[in-house]
Design brief:
By secondary structure, the protein is mainly α. Helix content is 46%, strand content 0%. The chain has a domain of 177 residues: Orthogonal Bundle (Cytochrome Bc1 Complex, Chain D, domain 2). The N terminus is likely disordered.
């Protein structure tokens, strides 16, 4: 039988390639449909809810260092802010912004903030009264605590050191508008701030009364004062006393006459 004329010759069979092609197109179609459905779902989704633009929401950024509502933490170097007089807080914010009080993280954060915004921050924290953070037991002896209590409540007249309570109040909660409370602060923080006043890395408006007081203290005095103040519990009402309640023994530039 001549070649090419037989009925038994098999025709090329490409059916084996057809099935993968159909499967490939089917998979691509599934992907395209999924993408279309996802796009439709995104287009009809509700916009993400935004946090309220309030001072409370903004100042939550302060919580890692200063505690919830500025109530303090167990970290020795970050102070409680809540309840301090607004004038005092404003003075410190301005001093940190302008570099008169040196602490690089705060200097950086406040560098471009306006007076009006700093005043809002000060007023917010001054109005708060969160519960106190549990205080740690003191690690100094009874004699050191007794010396610290004597300096805080009576001063040392022979050396010209006034009592801390003469400016900061009988309960050490401060006085409006610019004298801070001393209770609720850690021993290391108090010691560091007295040292900063002594060596000029923290300054206040002239006359700088705290620089004068700190310069009159010895190293052992600083240790004693810091230890005793840190042992004093925060009273049930930590509010500062009203303006003019105390006849201050020294003139202070941060406290108006």
């Amino acid at each position: 039988m001549p070649l090419g004329t037989g009925h038994n010759r098999k025709r090329p069979d490409n059916s084996s390639n057809a099935v993968p092609i159909r499967k490939g197109w089917c998979g691509l179609a599934v992907v395209l449909v999924s993408l279309m459905l996802y796009s439709i779902a995104v287009a009809h989704a509700q916009p993400t809810e935004r946090a309220p633009d309030t001072m409370e929401a903004r100042l939550r950024a302060c919580e890692p260092c200063h505690g919830r509502q500025g109530g303090g933490t167990n970290n020795d170097y970050f102070p409680r802010l809540a309840g301090k007089p607004a004038g005092y807080l404003m003075n410190q914010l301005v001093a940190l912004r302008d570099g008169r009080r040196r602490y690089p993280p705060m200097n950086y954060l406040l560098e471009y903030q306006s007076d009006s915004y700093l005043q809002k921050i000060a007023e917010y924290f001054a109005a708060l009264r969160p519960p106190p953070v549990q205080q740690t037991a003191t690690d100094v002896g009874a004699a050191v605590l007794a010396r610290g209590r004597s300096l805080v409540t009576d001063g040392d007249q022979a050396r010209g050191v006034p009592a801390c309570s003469g400016c900061h109040g009988p309960k050490l909660t401060g006085m409006e508008p610019g004298i801070p409370g001393l209770v609720g602060l850690r021993k290391t923080y108090i010691s560091a701030q007295l040292g900063a006043f002594r060596y000029g890395t923290r300054t206040a408006a002239k006359p700088d009364c705290m620089q004068l007081v700190a310069a009159s203290l010895t190293e052992s005095d600083v240790t004693a004062v810091a230890a005793w103040l840190a042992s004093v519990p925060i009273p049930p009402d930590p509010s500062p006393v009203p303006t003019g309640t105390l006849q201050m023994p020294l003139g202070c530039g941060s406290e108006p006459n």
